[in-house]
């Protein structure tokens, strides 16, 4: 396969995944909307605002895709639908909570829910979504899958607390940063792929392989997100360029730049880090410095290594069109940076 052919496959990967999972995803979407209902009017109003705000639903699609690689019976299909909806609810709950913690103003190119209904409502509706996620898992009677989801929920909460403790901490290492993204982003991708495989009846090695694929895909996804914060556009990001800097997040570009800068350059980065009133001209100077130091490119190269690891995990599985598509999805993750 030529480089051009590989690029074309990656560019169309998400559309192809949407197409092959469409029928089951219609059922997932119906379940999501029905479980967002409540006699408390504010709950469905806020929940549906986030759920219907344009997210691609990549994680539940991965759950459906991984399940489809194995068994085709009705029980497996029903479990996969419940798992996928639970994964999406869990993901959206973390978004609501993260936006409150980060004091974010935008989410997916729209005002964050907290900007409309406030922090308290956002946190409580996030709790409601988590409760519904666990309820849907319990309804499948699959305790092993419930354990996977429960552990992921705990790990993600730990990751959020750890990241909070590292806000504007100039001593943060690249290893600690990786622990944060493994706990926050990668854990959600891992649970999406692993419970999908479990729903389909995959054996333990196959479940672990797809779980590893999800982990590495999630790491790549977050690394590209962090690179885009200094090299993307608001439309691609769904938030404002430089928000990570304003929030004091010690992402890999910041860590690498601080390690390889002069005292004057470090002072510029430090002056911007955690500055909610950061002026655009200072932000432009920081971005220019990051480009000069090559840290955005280094972050993207590390994402490439994660994609390679994700594809390597897939090679342990029997060859199939779906395995090839999952590999293309990994390559698609990198294209978001271009």
Describe the structure.
- The chain is globular.
- Helix 5 packs parallel to helix 8 and helix 8 packs antiparallel against helix 9.
- A two-stranded antiparallel sheet has the order 1-2.
- The protein is mainly alpha-helical and 338 residues long.
- It has helices at residues 3-20, 22-35, 42-51, 58-68, 74-102, 113-117, 119-139, 143-165, 174-200, 204-228, 234-237, 243-246, 252-259, 263-272, 280-293, 295-314, 321-335, and strands at 106-107, 110-111.
- Strand 1 and strand 2 (110-111) form a beta hairpin.
- The protein has one domain (3-335): Farnesyl Diphosphate Synthase, CATH 1.10.600.
- The protein has 17 helices and 2 strands.
Number of strands: 2
Task: Determine the number of helices (DSSP H or I, runs of at least 4 residues).
Answer: 17
Beta-strand content bin: under 5%
Characterize the overall form. Answer: globular
Question: Strand count, sense and closure of the main sheet?
Answer: 2 strands, antiparallel
The helix fraction, in percent, is: over 70%
Global Rg: 20 Å
Terminal Cα span: 21 Å
Compute the number of structural domains.
1
Q: How would you summarize this macromolecular structure in one to three sentences?
A:
The chain has helices at residues 3-20, 22-35, 42-51, 58-68, 74-102, 113-117, 119-139, 143-165, 174-200, 204-228, 234-237, 243-246, 252-259, 263-272, 280-293, 295-314, 321-335; strands at 106-107, 110-111. By secondary structure, the chain is mainly α. A hairpin with a 2-residue loop joins strand 1 (106-107) and strand 2 (110-111).
């Amino acid at each position: 396969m030529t480089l051009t052919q590989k690029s074309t496959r990656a560019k169309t990967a998400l559309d192809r995944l949407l197409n092959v999972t469409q029928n089951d995803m219609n059922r997932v979407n119906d379940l999501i909307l029905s479980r967002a209902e409540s006699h408390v009017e504010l709950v469905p109003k806020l929940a549906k605002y986030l759920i219907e705000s344009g997210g691609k639903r990549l994680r539940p699609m991965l759950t459906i895709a991984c399940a489809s690689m194995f068994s085709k019976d009705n029980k497996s299909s029903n479990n996969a639908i419940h798992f996928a909806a639970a994964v999406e609810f869990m993901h959206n709950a973390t978004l609501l909570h993260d936006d409150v913690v980060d004091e974010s103003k935008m989410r997916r190119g729209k005002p964050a829910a907290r900007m409309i209904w406030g922090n308290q409502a956002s946190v409580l509706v996030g709790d409601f979504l988590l409760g519904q996620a666990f309820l849907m898992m319990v309804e499948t009677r699959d305790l092993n899958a419930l354990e996977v989801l429960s552990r992921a929920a705990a790990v993600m909460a730990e990751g959020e607390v750890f990241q909070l403790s590292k806000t504007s901490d100039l001593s943060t290492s690249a290893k600690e940063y990786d622990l944060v993204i493994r706990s926050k982003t990668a854990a959600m991708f891992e649970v999406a792929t692993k419970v999908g495989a479990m729903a389909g009846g995959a054996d333990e090695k196959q479940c672990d392989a797809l779980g590893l694929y999800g982990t590495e895909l999630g790491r790549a996804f977050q690394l590209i997100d962090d690179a885009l914060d200094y090299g993307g556009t608001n439309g691609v990001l769904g938030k404002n360029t430089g928000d990570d800097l304003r929030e004091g997040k010690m992402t890999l570009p910041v860590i690498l730049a601080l390690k390889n800068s002069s005292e004057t350059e470090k002072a510029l980065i430090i002056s911007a880090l955690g500055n909610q009133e950061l002026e655009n001209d200072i932000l432009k100077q920081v971005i220019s410095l990051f480009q000069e130091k090559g840290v955005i490119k280094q972050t993207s190269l590390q994402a490439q290594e994660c994609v390679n690891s994700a594809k390597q995990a897939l090679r342990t599985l029997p060859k199939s069109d779906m395995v090839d598509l999952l590999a293309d999805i990994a390559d698609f993750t990198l294209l978001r940076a271009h």
